[in-house]
TrEMBL record:
GO process terms (BP): RNA modification
Matches recorded under Pfam families: E_motif, PPR, PPR_2
UniProt keyword annotations, A-Z: Repeat, Transit peptide
Keyword Mitochondrion recorded: no
Single GO MF descriptor: RNA binding
Protein's name according to its UniProt entry: Pentatricopeptide repeat-containing protein
Amino acid sequence: MVRSSVPPDDRTFPFALHAAAAAVAAGKRPVKGLELHAAALRRGLLLADVFAGNTLVTFYAACGRAADARRMFDEMPARDVVSWNSLVSALLTNGMLEDAQRVVVGMMRSQVPVNVASLVSVVPACGTQREEEFGLCIHGLALKSGLDSVLNLGNALIDMYGKFGDLEAAMRLFNGMPERNEVSWNSAIGCFVHTGIYEDVLEMFRAMLGHGVTPGSVTLSSLLPALVDLGVFIWERRSTAPNVVSWNAMIANLAQNGAESEAFRLFIEMQKNGGCPNAFTIVNLLPACSRVTSLKMGKQIHAWSIRRSLMSDLFVSNALIDAYAKCGQLSLARNIFDRSEKDDVSYNTLIVGYLQSPCCFESLHLFEQMRSAGVEYDAVSFMGCLSACANLSAFKQGKEIHGVLVRRFLSTHPFLANSLLDLYTKGGMLDTASKIFNRITQKDVASWNTMILGYGMLGQHDVALELFDLMKDDGVDYDHVSYIAVLSACSHGGLVERGKKYFSQMLAQNIKPQQMHYACMVDLLGRAGQLSESAEIIRNMPFRANSDVWGTLLGSCRIHGNIELARWAAEHLFELKPEHSGYYTLLMNMYAEAGMWSEAHEIRTLMKSRKVQKNPAYSWVQNGNKLQAFLVGDA
DNA sequence: GCAGTCCAAG
């Protein structure tokens, strides 16, 4: 325009700056806007035109430069109410509520006639920051200036009171409104969503429809997380096109409620309909990938995040680390961790991720690295570290962490206390464990389960069973882990009949037995020499037995020298875990002991043809603060 | 031509 010598007038400038601010919001650098500022100075525009100054205040706010926005305002030769309002929202968009409050007060003192915009912009911030006192002040000002009947302000106030938890004030405003629009209804619905009384949410939604108000994308987004079971119903009856937020809400709704593949389908459909997935979409979908261990979908979403340059978002990179770790892909998870920005969640996610892996000692390394990196520990970090210590039998280090927790008054934290129980029971230190256990005021199901498992493992079955009965008296209901604990106590104690009783009790309680429960039953019967009954259990399982179950049977066969069943179990194990050398060795030794040399030789050949390596054995050595693994030779 | 209300995440 300038180059083609068409003179730009006063109106061109705000337009152009608006575009420059939008570019900044889209991730571009602010050069265009700075050039425009310079041009405006050269032309003396800022001396003559309030509009130019106002737009610059907003532009600097959009760049995240609140101080520059304020300087712009201070240097303006003349200001109007929009200048003040622009400064207020400039401060608010940069999270400076207190400064914004001071400006509003200054505005009153300078006798600037406030309008709706002056008040309406601070109201949402008061709500989210729980600034009740100032929020009530604003409401008071609205009443005094007669602005309280303005629709926008009323809507904002309803939402604010909802965020304060003052449902009565919110409803009084809502019911007294001279007119309502969709936002009024959304704000009112939002108040009930906060309270968690979903019958009321639904009732408001019905009332909204009854008043002939069309629910838009914002209504959808706030209803979907609240009304999970009605989600699809509402979604299918939507009358307006969804926006990114409502797509995301629906995807989250499906992903978090067991409809993972539906969520993936919607992700595709969203893009077909021109929706552009963002960081929220990714973060909602990734846990669904790990829940159904869909590595393929996870990788697709990873690739998508790279293309849309979303990898710099901490939520996205952390969610990816978590998804890969949960799918057992620790090296992929590590890769992202090493290349990304890191916060406490990144460290915690990977620490927990390594726990169930063969590289569990990495959890301890990371815990140490976290400290060197100056990232603060939280309860999750300590929990991960304690579990790692328990898994690695690193009891000395575990005790040190216990000391840290005591000094930080965290040793009675509900799930940290449980991690301590796990550590001490695994280390055979039942006295310490039971002292901690007795000090937990709110014992949850995990606390009881850990103690029962501990006593069961260490041969004190009577105590384990006693605890199992006591937990019910304490008002804590059994879960599926409780039954694993009690069944394994029975099997270690040789209490076959009692074990059978608990198993049927579990079925009666409508807890569906999982692989581990069957493994316990197979162990219970197998140890007692009732191998054919063990086999019968496996044959009658409602799903295919995994390696835990077959491995247990193989172990019992070894004890009782039943080669026939051992072969049967081993055949399944060779298929399920072909790389696991222990199973081959066990069967081979059984054949050898029975003098069945040709069969033993066959297994040896099978091992060679599959290139199965014997696992080297490691020993853990404390080296300063670090735990090191040393190879001690062939197992 | 500038300012201003409601919705979603580890």
